[in-house]
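Example 3.2
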Amino acid sequence: MKITYEEIRKNDTINTYIKQADLNLTALGFTEHSFPHVCKVAEMAGMILEKLGYDEHQVELAKVAGYMHDIGNVVNRIDHAQSGAVMSFRILDKMGADDEDIATIVAAIGNHDESTAFPVNPVAAALIIADKSDVRESRVRDAADITSDIHDRVNYAVKEQLLTVIPEEKKIVLTLEINNDISEVMEYFEIFMGRMKLCKKAAEKLGMKFKLIINSQEMA
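Structure, written as tokens:
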């Protein structure tokens, strides 16, 4: 059976895990990882492969992986990519998904966290870029208390975010507008340097170059 993104979005088990995982991260003080995040990641991952000419099925797999990628946080934040991969295997297998599709999705989810990530296939590459590019003001849970946490400051400072795929120039570009009164650009690099290096590897897997533009200045 070929699994679809719409089918996954309607799955009660997956949605329960997404909700509970985000509650766990709320308790730990992390930024939002609920439906706005996973839907945005799913759509961006699918968009990347679609723009690069991958077939409709590969685009669907990228969306599925994007939607399910953070369910491992229901277990623990540590090694959540690997936990999420195992959980995803069980869910997709129970749904009767095609073995090759399961393998692709599980590999992508298990390789999306920067501590252990690697773009092992195009779906994984698209997921990595989409996940690491989702930095925005609305992910901050408490705008009244952003001074103590650098992640909150950086996310809250981002007023505009745009991920663009330009196949003819072989570029994937993340463009950010940051309010320097809230967080300096150097703070962004302090916590996101590893993620941006990973995005470069992921783009290379897709035959592209990854570029980062902050406040109209090309940074990488």
